[in-house]
Amino acid sequence: MLLLYNFGIALYRMIIYIASFFNLKAELFLNGRKNIFNVIEKQIDTKQKHVWFHFASLGEFEQGRTVLEELKKNYPQKKIVVTFFSPSGYEIRKNYAIADGVFYLPLDTESNAKKLIDLIQPEIAIFTKYEFWYHYFQLLQERKIPLLIISGIFRPGQLFFKWYGGFYRSMLNCVTHFFVQNTESVELLQGLNFKNVSLSGDTRFDRVAENVLTVKHLPLIEEFCGKAPVFIAGSTWPQDEQLVTALIAAYPQWKFIIAPHEIGPAHIDQLLKLVPGALRYTQLNTKSPQPDSQVMVIDNIGLLSSIYQYGRVVYIGGGFGVSIHNTLEAAAFGLPVIFGPKYDKFQEAKDLLSLNAAITISSMAELSAAFKKLQKDTNAGPAAKKYVQDKTGATKQVLTYLEQYI
Fold it and tell me: Which residues are in the 3-deoxy-D-manno-octulosonic-acid transferase N-terminal domain (predicted)?
C-alpha cells in the first residue's frame, strides 16, 4: 500500500505540473515549492525549536487561528512555523506577522518529511481539521514529537473506517491527541480503540465570536449602505449569483453586496454583466462621493468577515457546487442565513436549520420565499448568534492540554 501511496503523490505532482501551464492555482502550487528548503533555511533560525501549525487552506487557517494566536500571546517567546497545502491559504497569509515563517508544505515524500522536520525542529505539531500525510506523521511519531489534530471531524465513509483501510489507520496511530467537533467523530475513533479523543467542539466558533468583538469598520461600505437594509451574498459562485441577482429588481429599497469566491478579472466582468451599474469596491475613492447604486461587488480578498456587520440577511454560496462556504461568520453577527442544497458536511449548517436560523433553497422560487420570510422573522438572527456563543470554548480546551508540552 505504501508503494501505491508514494506513486499517488508522484502522480499528483505530475498532474499539477501539467495543469500549471493553464491554471494559476496549479502554477502557484508548483512555483511556491521551488527551492522550498533553501527558502525555509534563510527565513527561520533552524537551530531553534518551533511550534508547527499546518493548515490545508485559508478556511482551516481561520479555524485554527485562535489556538495559534492565544498560544503566542501566552508564550511570546515561542517560535512558530505555519505551513499550507493550498495556494488559497498561503498566498493570502504568507505575510502573517505572528508566525516566524509561513511556507508551502512540501509534498509528502520520505525525503521531504525528513528535510522539513530537520529544518523547523518542531517541538509539537498541530494540524487543523484534516490533512493526514503518511511520511510526516510517521517521522513525527518516530521522533516522539507530539501531534495534535484540532477541530477534527470524521465520517463513516472515510477510508480510516473501511475494512481495507489499515494503511490509513496507521496514520491515526501517529496522533497524540484528537480534539474533535462532534460525538460521531468520538464514536468512530473509539470504535477503532482510540482513547486519546476529546469532544472539544470547533475552534471556528471562538474565531468568529472574536471577530465580532474586534471587527473593523469599513467607511466605504458604511457609506454605500446608508440606512437601507442590506442583503449580503458571500463566497458566491456563478450559479449562486444567477439566483441572487434575480432578486435585486424586486427589492429597490434594499442594498445588495456580492462577495464572489473567485475574484479573477474574467469572473468579476461576468458578474458585472449581470448587474450593470454595480459598484466595484476597489474602484471607490475615499475622497469622492460614491455614485448612487443598489449593488456593490467586492473584488478583493479579506473583507467579507467584516462586511457581515452591515447585513440584515445573508446568502452563503457554494451550495450548488461542492459544498457551502462559511456560515458561522455571518451567524456570529446575528444574521439569518440562506444557502444551497449541498450542506451535509457541515454540522453547523444542520444545527442552524434545526434552530430556524437558516433556510436551505434549491431554486429561485425558494430563494425568493426564504428572503421574504427572513425579512419578517425577528427570531432567526438572535437564534443564530446565541448558537455561536453557546459553542465557544474549544480553544481554551486545546490550550489547557498544550500546557504539558509548552
Answer: 42-206
Q: Which of 27, 41, 60, 241 is catalytic?
A: 60
Q: Catalytic residue at 91?
A: no
What CA–CA distance (Å, rounded) separates 76 from 68? Answer: 11
Buried-state track 79-107, b at ≥16 Cβ within 10 A, e below 16: bbbbbbbbbbbbbebbeeeebbbbbbbbb
**183-235 per-position pLDDT tens digit:** 999 999 999 999 999 999 999 999 999 999 999 999 999 999 999 999 999 99
pTM equals: 0.84
Please state, in angstroms and rounded to a whole number, the distance separating the CA atoms of residues 75 and 54.
19
Nearest partner of 304 among 271, 264, 259, 338, judged by Cα: 259
CB distance 361 to 340 below 8 Å: yes
For residues 134 and 103, state if they share a domain: yes
- Co-location of 25 and 86 in the same domain: yes
* Count of other CB atoms within 10 angstroms of residue 60: 24
DSSP string, 171-236: HHTT-SEEEESSHHHHHHHHHTT---EEE---HHHHHHHHHHHTPPP-HHHHHHHTTS-EEEEEEE
> Both 242 and 255 in a single domain?
yes
Look at residues 202, 239, 232, 204 and name the one whose alpha carbon lies nearest to residue 319. Answer: 239
Find the CATH number of the domain harbouring 243. 3.40.50.2000
Which domain covers residue 377, as residue numbers?
A: 210-390
Nearest alpha carbon to residue 263 among 241, 246, 292: 241
**Does residue 151 contact residue 185 with C-beta atoms inside 8 Å?**
no
DSSP 288: S
Q: Tell me the three cell numbers of residue 86.
A: 493550498
Asked whether 235 and 326 are in contact (CB, 8 A), the reply is: yes
Query: What value does the CA radius of gyration of the chain take, rounded to a whole number of Å?
Result: 22
